[in-house]
Design brief:
The structure holds two protein chains of two kinds. Chain A is mainly alpha-helical. Chain A has helices spanning 2-9, 31-55, 59-63, 75-83, 86-117, 123-132, 138-149, 165-169, 176-188, 191-199, 204-215, 217-233, 236-241, 250-261, 265-300. The longest helix of chain A has 36 residues, at 265-300. Chain A starts with a helix and ends with a helix. Residues 1-19 of chain A have low confidence and may be disordered. Chain B has two domains: 69-76 and 139-382, MetI-like (MetI-like fold, Orthogonal Bundle), CATH 1.10.3720; 78-137. Chain B has 15 helices and no strands. The longest helix of chain B is centred in the N-terminal third of the chain and has 51 residues, at 3-53. Chain B is globular and about 70 Å long. Classes of the chains: A mainly alpha, B mainly alpha. Chains A and B meet through α2, α5, α6, α7 and α9 of A and α1, α5, α6, α7 and α10 of B.
Chain lengths: 301, 389
Amino acid sequence: MANSTQTDTGKTRQTGMVRTPFHKTRWFARLPIYLILIFGAVIAFVPFFWMTSTSLMTLGETINRKWLPEIPQWENYINAWNEAKFAKYFVNSVIITITTVVGLLITSVLAGYAFGRMKFWGRDVIFALLLSTMMIPETVTLLPNMLMIRGAIIPLPGGSWLNSLQALTVPFMANAFSIFLLRQFFAQIPNELWDAARMDGAGHFRFLVQIVLPISKAPIMTVLLFGFIGAWNAFAWPLLVTTRETWRPLMVGLWNFVTEAGPETHLLMAGAMISLLPILVIYFLTQKQFTEGIATTGLKG
Amino acid sequence: MNTQDQSPGKPRRSLISQWNHLKEQLTAYLFLLPSILIIGIFGLFPIGYAIYMSLFNWRVTKGGFLGFDNYDKIVGDWGGLLLFLLGVALLVAAYWLWTSAFRSSSRGVVVAKVIAAILLVAVGFLLAGGWGRLMAGGDKKFWTSMMITLFYAIGTVPTQIILAMVLAYLLFQNIRGKDVFRMIYFLPYITPVVSTAVVFRSIFSPRETALANTVLSWFGAGPLKWLFEPRPFSQILFGWNIEGFWAGPSLALVTIILFGVWTFVGYNTVIFLAGLGSISKEIYEAAEIDGANAWGVFRNVTVPLLSPVTFYLFLVSFIGTFKAFNHIFVMEVPSAQGTVATASVEIFSIFYRANNYGYAAAQAIVLFLVILGLTFAQNKLLGKKVFYG
C-alpha cells in the first residue's frame, strides 16, 4: 500500500535506464562527463575536506600552507567542546530540535488532514491565506515576534518568554510548507478507505491515526527531515531571543565562538564540525528520502 | 429504496446528516486550531503589527506617533519614487508589447517592436532619474542596501541555475555513481549556514596562505583580500575606476555570492533532475533517429523542454535572494565597510544594533512591498502556476 501511493506522488521515480544520447557511446567518450561531474563534486566537497583537515591541525599548521596535519590533533575537538561550552549548547539544540519536530508533526498532520479530507466553511480561503505566509520575509516578522516573546504585545503565561524553551520552539511548530506537503498526500488517499472505516464506526481522528498515518510514512518522513534541518540550523531567531546561556542553541554558541575565538582557526573548525555532525548523520542515513522529497515538493510548487 | 421507506425516514435522516455536517465542521476547525494559532500569531499578525510600529517613533519602547515620517525618511523624494515606479510600469508594458508582437501579423511586429524599443529607452531614463533622486533625497544607506540586494540576486541566481542545469543534464546520462554525485552536490544545501560560513571565512581570508589565495598563486596571481575587500571587483580585476551602480559589487560581495552559489547549486540540480525525469524518452529517441548529436539534443530538446522548470527556479530563487539574511549576515566583516549589507541585513542591524524599532519596521515593510510586487509579477509571468515558496 505504502509503495503504491508513494509512486503516485514521486514522478521522479522513473530513473531506470533512459535512452539518452550517450547510451551507445563508449566509456572514453563519456570521460569528459565524468571529469565535469567530478570537478563539481570536488568544489562541493572541498570546504568539508578543509574543515575536517584544519580541525585536526595545530595552530601553527593552520597559518602555514598545509593540506593535511602532520599528526591529527584529536584533542582540538575536546578543547573546542570545552572552550565554546558546547556540552550545554549541544543538549539545548537536541531538546529544541526534538520538541519543535514533534510539535510540527502533530500540528501539520492534523491541519493537512483537515485541508485534504474534510469539508468545512472557508476551507479554500484559509488555505490560500496560509500559503501566502510563505512569501513573508523573516526580516518583517522578527521584530514584532521579539516584542511578542518579551510579553510586550499580549500578556504571556509566565511574563516574558525571553531565554525560554517555548520561545525557541513554539513559533516553528507549524508552517505552511509542511501542511501543504501533507495535504497533497492525504487528498490522494482513495475514498473507499474512508467509507470502509466509517462503516466500522470510525470517526475522522481514528481514521487518521489508524489508517492514514501508517500509509503516509514517506511524506511524514519528509516533513520530519525538513523540520529537523530547519530547527537544528535556525540562527537569526535564536540569536535574538537567547541573551543568556540557559537555552542557547549550538548555532548561536558557534557564532559567539566565531566572534570571540578570533585566530584559533583549528578550534573553530572543530566546533563547526561538531555542529554539523548530527545533520550529516541524518543526511547519510536518509539522503534518498531527502532529495526525492525536495524534488517532488519543489516541482509541485 | 422505494418511496415507502423514504417518507418517514427523511426528516430524521436529514437531522442526523445536519448534525454530522456540523460535527465534521467542528472537528475540522479543531484540527486546524493549533496550526492556525501558531501561524496566525507568529506569521500573519507580525505584518499588521510591523505596519503599526512603523508609524511611531519606537526605540525599544513605544514613543510618539509619527504618521508617515519614517517612510518619508526612507523615500525622501516622492517624485523620484513616482518616476522610478513609472519606469517599472513602462518596462512591464514594453515586455508585454514585445511578447504579444510575435503573435500578431508581420507588419504589427515591426511597429510593436519599434514602440517597445522606444519604451525601453524611456524606461532607462525613468529608472536612472528616479533612482538618482531617491539616493539623493532619501535614506542613501537603505537604497544602497537595495542595490546590493539586486547585485546579490543577479550574481547568484543565473550562475547557480546554469551550473545546476549542466550538472543535472550530465547526471541524467547513463553514468555510474549517479547517487553519490547527487548526494555530494546536495550536501551544501542542508548543512548549517553558520558552520559552512566558518570554513568559507577561513578559505577566503586575506592571509596569503589561505586556500583561495593559494589557488590564485597556482595561476601566478597575487593574493586578494576577498571578504575584507570593500573595493568593487571591476576595479580590482580590470582596474576600472567606475563609481555607483555600474561599478558592480565589491569583491567582498562577490565572495559571498560564491558562497551562495555553492550552497544552492545542489538544490537546483535536484529539481532539474526531477524535471528531466518527466521529459518522455520518445522525444530523445526521435531526436536520435534524426541524427542529432549530444549537443544538439541538449540545445534543441532538453533546454526548451526544461524551460518551465528553469523559469520557476529563476523566479523563486530571485525572490529568495530578496529574503536572504543568514548567508550574508554570517559572512559580513567590518572591513567590508557595509558593501555587503543587503536590505535584510541592513534592517536587522537597525533594530538589533541601533535599536531603532519604528524605523526598522518601516524599512521591513518597504522590503515586503518589493517582495509582494515581485511575487505578483511572478504569478503573472508563470500564468496559472501558483507561488508556494
